[in-house]
Design brief:
Protein name: FecR domain-containing protein
CATH class of the largest domain: Mainly Beta
Number of helices: 11
InterPro entries: FecR, FecR_C, Ferrdict_sens_TM
Transmembrane segments: 92-109
Helix content: 25-40%
Order of helices and strands: HHHHHHEEEEEEEEEEEEEHEHEHEHEEH
Pfam families: FecR, FecR_C
Keywords: Membrane, Transmembrane, Transmembrane helix
Number of domains: 3
CATH architecture of the largest domain: Sandwich
Number of strands: 18
Length: 333
Amino acid sequence: MEAEEIYLLITRYLARQTSSDENERLATWVAQSSDHERTFEQLKAVWQASPTPPAPAATAAALRQVKARLAPPVPVAPPAIRRWRLARRYQTAALLVLLSVLGGGYFYARPTVPAYRLSLTPAGRQQTIRLPDGSLVTLAPQSQLRYPVRFSETSREVYLEGEAFFEVSKNPHRPFRVHSGTWVTQVLGTKFNVSAVRGASQTAVSLVEGQVQVNDDHGQYLLAPGQQLLGDHATGRIYRQAFNKARVTAWRSNKLVFQNEKLADAASQIERLYGVKLVFADPATAEIRLWATFNNEPLTAVLGALHQAGSLDYRREGKVIYLRQAAAKSSGE
């Protein structure tokens, strides 16, 4: 991506106005190099230090003005050096943009929120994060975790979108809370999985070890090891149930385990693991039930197994895969 494009994308992301596809592009860019990560953190720090962050439209206008002021002279240096200098100009411009639209508040106003880090994972990649208290988080593909550089003396708060497995260090004096949508999962020290994928039909907290309490707008729910709290977005129903640990945590080993799951729900896992988009020919195709296990296999093997089972046909165009029932295809031709 061009420098101007990435800086505008970052400001739109910080304003929570990006799509899931744009979040994927940004995650891939941040993961490419330490320089990209440092640039992202610099822009985020300026943004968070402002009590009233600017709208992306204002940022874009300011960027055009600063870019004009910093326009480079006719280049005489070798191409590689010119590209490096231009990238540095854009980084400086982006910082000046935020400072200008924030009114210089970065230097004079005390931050109203603690400094945060943001970890994002692109499709097909996981990331293990060690938090300031020593807790470990394994972040699933196409997920993001926001957490403070330093936890407060009274609590440990993190914010998840997507899926992650937590191994929390015990500290009875500082509860650990995972914010995922309207759910807040509170623990003192334990191991559990949280699935809060945007657009998914369900949210789930699955407890492997210890004890957790999940709070939402309707009440509080205590879980014991081996129990899962499941929230159905369509019906609003929330209930406890036993869960299969191997199935719930299979993603940590790049496995796919489907046990009588709707294709619509399985599609999210396939998309995140392989970086593709599944499109169904009709609602009936999305309702097909799957019984299958794939152990870190390539996408072609997964699609081939679905086809050979006799229930699905597929057509692939780049990163988009079109699925339909085999019977519907044969009857229509």
